[in-house]
Design brief:
Strand order of the largest sheet: 2-8-7-6-5
Bound molecules: pyridoxal-5'-phosphate
CATH architecture of the largest domain: 3-Layer(aba) Sandwich
Pfam families: SepSecS
CATH superfamily of the largest domain: Type I PLP-dependent aspartate aminotransferase-like (Major domain)
CATH topology of the largest domain: Aspartate Aminotransferase, domain 2
Subunit structure: Homodimer. Interacts with SepRS.
CATH class of the largest domain: Alpha Beta
Number of helices: 15
GO molecular function: Sep-tRNA:Cys-tRNA synthase activity
Distance between the termini: 46 Å
Radius of gyration: 23 Å
Enzyme class: transferase
Number of strands: 12
Strand content: 5-15%
Family: Belongs to the SepCysS family.
Shape: globular
Length: about 400
């Protein structure tokens, strides 16, 4: 079907079960879709902007209140919406990182964290993962000490992914934050895979910043996200402008430097706000999401030669699977080669896995129903059996 302008309408969501690893938590709610239509104009949220002229002072729609709600949602004191998690990283790095400063990241940090550090002139140092692909506090302590000795001063900032994008593993955030604070290093929690899908309490984790991605995990249009912090750090990261133009003497005092004055407007912000009540509710059902993911995991691990590379038992719905000794063996002789798997899944109405991937791949069951999880599990078993792989039912 075509809509005006010659753009094909997207059929992935309506026609299929989508287990794409990165899309799961960002799918819009019906309320967000309505908001997108009604607030499509670029400056649609600015109708009632009045003194002081800044996005987070607008009361209608209730943006000021939304910021407060976002902060409370992740157990912090203040929050702002930002155009994607990466812009949150950039704001924090822009505040604390100067040229040549050492910054701690991890072996599982997302590339956007590296870019935020590089953009600010910092030097990234990675904390290694252990054999189970977990970032541990011991390793963090060792690396912080090493970097401190080398530079003659501690790192200026530490990034830790609450759940990483490669394995969907949960890391030792609370313990790492404690270690970092012993060296007075502020801690940024990357909640791109947690804020909006599972409960997150930044204060209880002891971090200084909590960053979420709207389009990844808060059922919001892209690019959207949030940056929350403590009252103390808010003064630094949400600082307002200080300098004057030398010719006109103009100042822009109320505008926040790292937010470039105002942040999200129109569709992104209103979509995020419209989904928020649903998001607040859905994080309470995280255990059900884990159960659904285990239905698919049990099926996959019952296929001879298949292994899960993420931590087990699963504590997140994003999982990395190794089928190099099962589906990839089939691919060696199949006429469709590695594409046989994605093609067989597509025929059964399941999409979102990388076409051609039969060695190591990821999937995410977040947001599908229990019946759909059972259907996906059965589909993998059928495809295995149809291709001569033996299946031993889970105990
Ligand atoms: C772990 C992780 N962190 C950060 C990001 C960046 O998020 P955003 O697209 O909201 O900037 C992504 C996704 O691209 C991610 O997977």
């Amino acid at each position: 079907m075509k809509c005006t302008g010659g753009i094909d309408l997207r059929d992935v969501e309506e026609m299929n079960i989508n287990i794409d690893p990165i899309q799961a938590g960002g799918r819009l709610t019906a309320d967000a879709m309505k908001a997108v239509i009604s607030y499509g104009d670029g400056y649609s949220v600015c109708d009632n902007c009045g003194k002081p002229f800044r996005l987070d002072y607008i009361n209608k729609p209730p943006i000021a209140e939304f910021h407060e709600d976002l902060a409370a949602f992740v157990g912090m004191d203040q929050a702002r919406v930002v155009p994607g998690a990466r812009r949150g990283f950039q704001a924090v790095a822009g505040t604390y990182v100067g040229k040549g400063d050492p910054v701690m990241l991890t072996a599982l940090s997302h590339y956007t964290e590296f870019i935020a550090v590089e953009n600010a002139g910092g030097i990234p140092h990675e904390i290694p993962k252990d054999a189970q692909n977990i970032i541990r506090a011991d390793a963090a302590a060792e690396r912080i000490e090493e970097v401190t000795r080398t530079f003659g001063r501690p790192p200026v900032l530490l990034f830790i992914d609450h759940v990483d994008y490669q394995f969907g593993n949960i890391h030792e955030v609370r313990e790492i934050a404690r270690v970092a604070h012993d060296y007075d290093v502020p801690v940024l929690l990357n909640g791109a895979y947690t804020v909006g899908i599972m409960p997150v309490d930044g204060k209880s984790l002891g971090v200084d910043f909590v960053i979420g991605s709207g389009h990844k995990s808060m059922a919001a249009p892209a690019p959207s996200g949030m940056l929350a912090t403590t009252s103390e750090r808010a003064e630094e990261v949400f600082r307002t402008t200080q300098v004057k133009g030398d010719l006109t003497g103009r100042t822009f005092g109320i505008k926040e430097v790292e937010m470039m004055g105002c942040t999200l407007m129109g569709v992104t912000l209103m979509g995020m706000m419209a989904s928020f009540p649903h998001v607040q509710e859905r994080v309470k059902r995280w255990d059900e999401e884990i159960e659904k993911s285990r239905i698919v995991i049990d099926a996959l691990t019952s296929i001879e030669g298949t292994a899960v590379r993420s931590e087990m038992p699963r504590r997140h719905t994003l999982t990395r699977v190794d089928t190099s000794r099962s589906f990839d063996r089939v691919a060696e002789t199949h006429k469709k080669r590695g594409f046989f798997l994605s093609s067989a899944l597509k025929k059964k109405g399941i999409v979102g896995v990388i076409p051609g991937a039969t060695k190591v791949w990821k999937f995410n069951t977040y947001g599908i129903t229990r019946a759909q999880a059972e259907y996906v599990a059965a589909a993998y078993l059928e495809i295995a059996e149809e291709n001569g792989l033996s299946v031993s039912p889970a105990e």
